Amino acid sequence: MINISNLSYAFGTGSSRTPVFSGLSMNVQRGEFISVVGGSGCGKSTLFKIIAGLLEPDNGRITLNGAESATAAKRLGSVAYMPQQDLLLPWRTVMDNCLLPWELKRSRPKAAAVAEIRTLLQRFGLEGTEGAYPQELSGGMRQRVAVLRTVAAGNDLLLLDEPFGALDAITKRSLQRWLLELWAELDKTVLFITHDLEEALLLSDRIYLMTGSGGGMQEFPAGLPRPRHHSLNYQPQFAALRQELELKLYENRRS
Amino acid sequence: MRTAAPRSLLQHYGPASLLALLTLAVWETVARLGLVPPFILPAPSAVCKALLEERRLLFGVHLPATLLEVLTGFALSVVCGCLLGIAMHLFSPLAKALYPLLIISQTVPLIALSPLFIMWFGYTLWSKVAVVFLTAFFPVVIGTYDGLSKNTDAYRELLLTYGANRWQILGKVGVPLALPSFFSGLKLSAVYCVIGATIGEWLGGSQGLGYFSRRMAGNLQSAKMFAAVVLLSVLGILLFLAVAALEKIILKKRGRYS
C-alpha cells in the first residue's frame, strides 16, 4: 500500500534547521491497521502531513500504491487525512459536511454520494443526525462524523491523527470499541497516531515506535488474534504486551 | 416563547424608549415655555408639524433624490469593496500596496476636497455618489479583507488533502468564515452612506434632504431643518436594519443562530 524509506525532515531554513526525524522507514500492506506511537514532539503529525502531501520531506522516498510520487503535492487528494481537531464546518449540517470531499471532486452523481453517506451514517451509529449542525452533537459524535467524512473521501489509505485524543476517558473507550467493530467491515488501510498504548494494542496489527531525531522507526508486532473483543484489555497476554511496549518506549527515550 | 415576546421586547427596548420619551418631554416643555427661541431649538411638535406641512416636497422630491444617491453609492461601495477585499486577499503584494493608501483615503477631510469633486463631476448625481463612495467603501473593503485573512490554515490543509484548489478553498471555507466580518463592515457602510450623501448635498446641489436642511437652516427655519434631519436619521436606521436582517437570514440558513 505504502512504502516509506529513509525519510528525513527538518524545520526551519538555512543553517538553523532543527531536525525532526531522519532515517525513517516503514512498510504498510493493504488492509493493515498500523499505529504510530511516540512521545510528543517526535514528529508523528509531521510524518502524516508528509504522507498526505502537505509537506515536502528533505530526503527519502515514498511509494504509494506502487508508484513513487515526484513531489509531495502529487499525493494531495489520494490519501485521506484526519487531523487532531474534528474540523467540521460549523455552518454545514452533518450531511453537508460529509459531502464536502465529493463537492471538491464531483466524480459521480450527487445522489450516489448522498446514498453512500446515508449507509455510512447508519453503520457509524449516526442515523438521525443527518440534518444536525456539529455544535448540536456531543464530542464523541462529532469525532465519528469526522471519521465518516474521512472515509467518504473515498481513498483506501486513511491517516488518523489522534482522532480520540481530545475526548474524555469514557467516550474514548466507547469509540475505541466502536472503531474495533467497524474496522472489520470497512476494508481500508489505516495509519493511526496515538499516545494511548492500550488503544494501539487493541486496534492495530503492528505498531511503529517513533523516537524522533535520528532514532528512526522501531517495529513492534502487536499481532493479537482477530476478531478482537474489547474485553481483551483485561487478559494477561494483553497486559504483558503492554508492559513490553512501555518498556521499549522508555528505553528509546533514555538513549 | 411567543407569549413571552412582548415582555422581552419591553426589557430590551424599554429603557431606551423611556429615556427618549423623557428627553422629548423635557425638550417640548423647554420649547413651549419659551426658554429657548424656536429658531435655536424648535419643539418636537413643531418639527412634526413641519414634517407634515412639507411632506410633498420632502417625500416627493428630496427623499427620492437622497435615496438615489445613497443606494447608488452603497451598491458601488459593496461591489468595489468586495472585489478589492478579495483581490487584496488573493494577491498579498496588492494588499501591502493598497492598505496604507486606503487608510490615508479615510484621513483626507472630504469637505476640503469638495471643490475638486464639483470640478470633476459638476453638480450632478455623481459628485454626491463620489462622496458616498469614499465614506462607505472603506468598511466594506476592511470587513471583507480582514474576514478573509482569518487564520484558516487547519481547514485549508484539510481541503488540500481532499484535492481542493485555492478557489475551492476560498469558496468552501474562506468566504463562509469571512461572512460575519463582512456584514459588520456592511452595516457600518450602510450608515455611512447617508452621512456621505448629506455631506455631498451640502457641497453643492439643488435637491436632497441634506440640501433642504442646509437651505432651511440658512433661512432660520429650524423646524423644517430638523424635519429633514429626522428623515435622514430614519433612512440610516432603516438601511442598517435591512442589512442586519439580511445578515440574520443568511447566517441563520447556515446554522449560526440555531
Automatic annotation (TrEMBL), chain A:
The keyword Nucleotide-binding applies. Keywords: ATP-binding, Nucleotide-binding, Transport. Residues 2-237 form the ABC transporter domain. The keyword Nucleotide-binding applies. GO terms for molecular function: ATP binding. Gene3D superfamilies: P-loop containing nucleotide triphosphate hydrolases (3.40.50.300). InterPro entries: AAA+_ATPase, ABC_transporter-like_ATP-bd, ABC_transporter-like_CS, ABC_transporter_ATP-bind, P-loop_NTPase. PANTHER family: ABC TRANSPORTER ATP-BINDING PROTEIN, TAURINE IMPORT ATP-BINDING PROTEIN-RELATED. This is Hydroxymethylpyrimidine transport system ATP-binding protein. It comes from Paenibacillus silagei.
UniProtKB/TrEMBL annotation, chain B:
Keywords: Cell membrane, Membrane, Transmembrane, Transmembrane helix, Transport. PROSITE patterns: ABC_TM1. It is a multi-pass membrane protein. It is found in: Cell membrane. InterPro entries: MetI-like (IPR000515), MetI-like_sf (IPR035906). Belongs to the binding-protein-dependent transport system permease family. This is Hydroxymethylpyrimidine transport system permease protein. It comes from Paenibacillus silagei. The lineage of its organism: Bacteria, Bacillati, Bacillota, Bacilli, Bacillales.
